[in-house]
Predict the 3D structure of the following.
Amino acid sequence: MKIGVISADITSESRVAITPDAVKKLRKLGFEVVIQSGAGQAAYYADALYQAAGADIASSRTEVITQSKIITTVNDLPAEATQSLSSGQIVIGMLDPYRNTQLDTYAAKGATVFAMELLPRTLSRAQNMDVLSSQANLAGYKAVLLAANEYSRPFPMFMTSAGTVKPAKVVILGVGVAGLQAIATAKRLGAVVEASDLRPTAREQVESLGGKWLDVPMSAEEAETAKSTGGYAWTPSEQYVKDQAAVVDKALSNADIVITTAQIPGRNAPRLVHGATLAKMKAGSVLIDMAAGTGGNVEGSVPNETITTDNGVRIVGAANIPSQLAAQSSDLYANNLVNFITTLIAPAGDDASANLALNLDMEDEIQGALAVTHDSQVRLAKR
């Protein structure tokens, strides 16, 4: 049974779905692996490394797809590639399911398609398959380095014979996996860091990393509601939203670096920084918009471009930061995929390679959550 690996079809994507180390793991499970020639080149994994790990090299994407039972990818398959699919094949990748326009095509082809973004992250047995966390962790780290490169002053405080250099003031908006890593990285570089999140319960995590929480006053009743839900199911009052915006606006007006991380699966990213706030920021300050590819947290941001406002503020539309760390992000992503693929294998006897079989079970809490098409049907509920 073969697992296929195809190359990314977009110029801004350097990652590859399966690395040579992952090939070795899959072969131990009993799979054969075929990879499109050059698929790992941008992540510094040459064809020779795959061959040494036991993979076959195919000259084209079509050849990979026609040979493989399971097809792995980083992003969605190109439209022309879906035409090569046959009934019973499996596609696994980060497929942006709520925006994906090819689900009907996948279903018509009879393919079972798993979108890794839909993983139930609260399940303990699913943690080693969590592609969002593995990629966001690296993205939060790299976002700070991108900011440091764009910023015209150093991050840490320096004591020099010519005077004291003040530390950079960094504000992180959105304290998920990426935001927490950004806080930790900015602190290691010597910056003064403040952070905000719609979830008041994130305060403890921010402060544990040495950041300052941008506190927003709230009523005792509202505080108890937010605490009891863990912050995720909490709907803040209009007054809280208004008060938080005022606190954030003041912090951003004094900031040197702002990094925004807020994204909502299947929806446009929430607008966190508006033009009125940008107009108050200092010339030379830098914003890294990590949500630029899904609508942007910052007004005026453009995916994969750097915009300078009339008052000298630089807005970096960082649409796909993990691709800039392609070697490491590919390695983690490949491990996530291998861990998920193991859930698809039916129990086998002593000779795994001879008894290798798939067990697709839509009642399984992981498989059922990730499957967006199966049995010629689109399973994804619309948002």
